[in-house]
Amino acid sequence: MSKLWGGRFTKKTDQLVEEYTASILFDKELAEEDIQGSLAHVTMLGKCGILPAADVKTIQDGLKQVLERIRRGEAEFSVSDEDIHMNIEKQLIDLVGPVGGKLHTGRSRNDQVATDMHLYLRRRVVEFVGLLTSLQEALLEQAKNNIDTIIPGYTHLQRAQPILFAHHLMAYVSMFQRDIERLQDSYKRINALPLGAGALAGTTFPIDRHFVAAELGFDRVYENSLDAVSDRDFIVEFLSGAALIMTHLSRFCEELVLWSSTEFAFVELDDAFCTGSSIMPQKKNPDVAELVRGKTGRVYGNLIGLLTVLKSLPLAYNKDMQEDKEGMFDTVKTLQGALQLFAPMVATMKVNRGRMRQAVNNDFSNATDIADYLVGKGLPFRQAHEVIGKTVLYCIQNDKYLLDLKLDEFLQFSELFDEHIYEVLQPENVVNARNVYGGTAAPQVKDAIARAEASNEQA
Ligand code: ARG
C-alpha cells in the first residue's frame, strides 16, 4: 500500500522506522474528534467555493460512514498509515474514491492534530468538572450528616484543636472548588481553533477560519499560525490541573487510610470499596484510597514528561510533539478512574462518631482555650501559654486530662482560674468559640455548606 506522502520517496520505509514513528496505536483515541474536525473543514471548503458542493457531499457522507465503521469497531487501523489522520483519510479514499483526496485541501496534519487535541480536551474538561462536582456533593452530604461530630484537628499529625468533622470535609470541598475553577479557566485557552494555520504559515486557499470555529463551537481562532500548530500549553495546563487534583485526592486518601486503621477507627469504608488479603482472613484493605494515592505519581510524571518534551523545541511543529498524547490519555484515564470511585466511596463511608468523641475527650486539644481564657482575665498570652504548658505537664505526669482536674489543682498554676473553665473546656464550646468567617463553629460551617450548595446549584 502506498503512502499518502509517498510521491517524493523512491524507497520503502524501513519496517522498524514505520513502527517507531507511527502513533496510530494510541491516537486512534482521537477518531471521533478527527472526523468532527474534518466535517467542519470540508463544509467550509464548500462554503468558500474551494470544493464543489457534490464533492463536499460525497466526502461528508464518506466521513460519516467511516465514523460509523469505527464506532462499530469494524475499522482496521494500520501502522503503515502512521496516524489516525492518515488512517481515516485512507479509509475515506478507499470508500469514495479519489475525490476523498480533496479533503486535505488547505490543511496540514499539523493544524489538524492540534484541532483534534483541542476538541478532545474540551470534552474532558467538561466531564471532569461534572465528576468533581459529584464528589463535592458526596462531601457536602457527609458534612451535613456530621454537623455536630467533633474530631481532633491536627497539625504535625499531633492533636491540635478540636474541629467539626464537617469542617474538615468542607476543606476538601474548597480544594475541589479551586480545581473546578482551574479547569474552567483553562477552557478559555482550550476553546480556540488552530485549524487554518496549515503546516505553519497559513494556506493559499481562501478559507474561512471563523466559520470553522463557529461550526466546531470554538470561541476564537488562534492569532498566529506558527503558535497555532506548536502550542501545547493547553495540554500542559490540563496536566497540571490534573496533577493538583491528584494531590488533593492523595491527601484525602492518606487521611482515609489513617482514619480506617484500627488505631484511628474514625471511619469505616464500605466493603464494596475495599479488598481482602489472600492470606490474612481478617484483613479489609483500603485499596482504592491507596491506589489513587499511588497513581498520583504517573499523573505528575505525565506533566513533567510533556514539559520536558516541549522544552527547547524550535517553532513550529516537530515530531517530538507526537509525544504529547500518551501521557494525556493516561492522565484522562487515571483521573476518570479516581474521580468515578471517589464520590461513592465518600458517600458510603461510615463515620464512627463514638470513636471520634472518645478521641476528643482524651486529649489536650482544648489547651489553647484555657490559655485564651486566662488572657481574657488579663494575663498576657505568653504567660498564659506558660501556665497552661505547666498544667498540661502536670496532667501528663498524673495521667489526667484537663477536664479531670479539680479547681484546687488548677489554682496551683494560676489564681485566675474559676469554675467557668469547666465550661470553656467542653469540646462543643471550644469548637463554637471559633465563630469567625471560615472557622469551625457550627453556625460558620452551616453557612459554608449553604454557600457551597448554592454555588453548585448555580453552576
Ligand atoms: N501523528 C502526528 C502527531 O501526533 C500528527 C502530525 C504529524 N505531522 C507531521 N508533519 N508529521 O503529532
From TrEMBL:
Pfam families: ASL_C2, Lyase_1. SUPFAM superfamilies: L-aspartase-like (SSF48557). One of its GO terms (molecular function) is argininosuccinate lyase activity. InterPro entries: Arg_succ_lyase_C, Argininosuccinate_lyase, Fumarase/histidase_N, Fumarate_lyase_CS, Fumarate_lyase_fam, Fumarate_lyase_N, L-Aspartase-like. It is an enzyme of class 4 (lyase). Residues 7-301 form the Fumarate lyase N-terminal domain. It is found in: Cytoplasm. Residues 364-432 form the Argininosuccinate lyase C-terminal domain. Keywords: Amino-acid biosynthesis, Arginine biosynthesis, Cytoplasm, Lyase. Its EC number is 4.3.2.1. Its main location: cytoplasm. Pathway: Amino-acid biosynthesis; L-arginine biosynthesis; L-arginine from L-ornithine and carbamoyl phosphate: step 3/3. The keyword Amino-acid biosynthesis applies. The keyword Zinc does not apply. It catalyses: 2-(N(omega)-L-arginino)succinate = fumarate + L-arginine. Belongs to the lyase 1 family. Argininosuccinate lyase subfamily. This is Argininosuccinate lyase.
